[in-house]
Amino acid sequence: MSNKYYKSIAAGLLIGLGAWIYLMCPDRTIGALLFSCGLLGVRIYNLNLYTGKIQYAIKKNEYKWYDYFIFLMGNLIGIVFMALFTEFTLPENAAALGEIKTQMPFLTSLIRGVGCGALMSLATNKKTPFWVTSLCVATFILAGFNHCIADAYYILISGNTLGISWLGTLIGNTIGGIIFSEILSEA
User: Does domain 3-186 correspond to CATH entry 1.20.1080.10?
Assistant: First the structure.
């Protein structure tokens, strides 16, 4: 297996860690800020997080179309491992967030996904200071935006499977990440 796969799985593990930290924190705002530890790890170690790499889909031709599939699948594998690892340490109400994410209408998931994709584009940009990355993460969580990798963790720990709502989030993250990065590159 190539380094690309390992870096994708590691990114999923770190986002799962951030999601777990968020659920374990009794204060929602502090938890949202601490969630960013996962994304900061992704940035520091230059890992392959789908929502961070998708911004390069049009402008740089840095990756092939199948690379994005590898990033996504690796991220989901990391999330599954983290869900299994943290399953017995979660607070009682942790599954409620997964239920909400599962029952969300497709259009709502899509729109909330676009908002998160835009913030992830800014948060993962190489020029973005780390403190801005933390603010972007806290903002998307507190605003109720959807992140396809973090949401996969919440959905799996609630005992549900990824469905149409999650697909809306994935499409929204992709659209938001690509469009926002294009806007930034023109600025």
Answer: yes
